[in-house]
Amino acid sequence: MRGPFLSLLWMSSCALLCTVLAGCAANAPTPRGEVKGAATTPAELAQSDMNRVATLAMHENLEGLFRLMDKLYRRNPAEWRKTSATSREHAAEQVRTAILQRQPWAPLQGRRDIAAMGFAFAPEFNGDRVAAFIHATADMIITAHGGKIEFFLLDGMDAQHLYNAARNVESAVWLLADEIGPQGRNLSFEREFGKIIARLDLLAALTTEKYRRAAISYVQGIVGGTFLQFLPVR
Question: Is the pTM of this model over 0.85?
Answer without folding.
Answer: no
